[in-house]
Amino acid sequence: MSLLKEFKEFALKGNVVDLAVAVIIGGAFGKIVSSLVNDVIMPPIGVLLGGVDFKDLSITIKAAEGDLPAVVLSYGNFIQNVVDFVIIAFVIFMAIKAMNSFKKKEAAAPAAPPAPTPSEKLLEEIRDLLKK
């Protein structure tokens, strides 16, 4: 029973739950960004480059022979994945930058109490003299 109890404590810690949520959201976010790149960004770039679809860019190293498929170097997919990565990295950078700016505002040290005015100092001296 001890092992089960330890596992339950581990699994229900805040960090593990936060990590699980982050992985799920990250997967969904990755699909959104991939769709953005594949369906919105890359088609206009392909048109600007003369109607090129990046997924079709490849170099045939060895032609197909009989039942053996051709050996193809698909560098277009690589370009597509690099663009995906750059966009995802930039968006995550901006999100973390925004979160850090919110934390800095929250973590600002509270202002020191204002110094006593001259009249308050005089009243404190009078109080101290009366105590004697």
From TrEMBL:
<dbReference type="Pfam" id="PF01741">
    <property type="entry name" value="MscL"/>
</dbReference>
<keyword id="KW-0812">Transmembrane</keyword>
<dbReference type="InterPro" id="IPR019823">
    <property type="entry name" value="Mechanosensitive_channel_CS"/>
</dbReference>
<dbReference type="InterPro" id="IPR037673">
    <property type="entry name" value="MSC/AndL"/>
</dbReference>
<dbReference type="InterPro" id="IPR036019">
    <property type="entry name" value="MscL_channel"/>
</dbReference>
<protein>
    <recommendedName>
        <fullName>Large-conductance mechanosensitive channel</fullName>
    </recommendedName>
</protein>
<dbReference type="InterPro" id="IPR001185">
    <property type="entry name" value="MS_channel"/>
</dbReference>
<keyword id="KW-1003">Cell membrane</keyword>
<keyword id="KW-0406">Ion transport</keyword>
<comment type="subunit">
    <text>Homopentamer.</text>
</comment>
<keyword id="KW-0407">Ion channel</keyword>
<keyword id="KW-0472">Membrane</keyword>
<comment type="similarity">
    <text>Belongs to the MscL family.</text>
</comment>
<feature type="transmembrane region" description="Helical">
    <location>
        <begin position="12"/>
        <end position="33"/>
    </location>
</feature>
<keyword id="KW-1133">Transmembrane helix</keyword>
<feature type="transmembrane region" description="Helical">
    <location>
        <begin position="78"/>
        <end position="96"/>
    </location>
</feature>
<keyword id="KW-0813">Transport</keyword>
<comment type="function">
    <text>Channel that opens in response to stretch forces in the membrane lipid bilayer. May participate in the regulation of osmotic pressure changes within the cell.</text>
</comment>
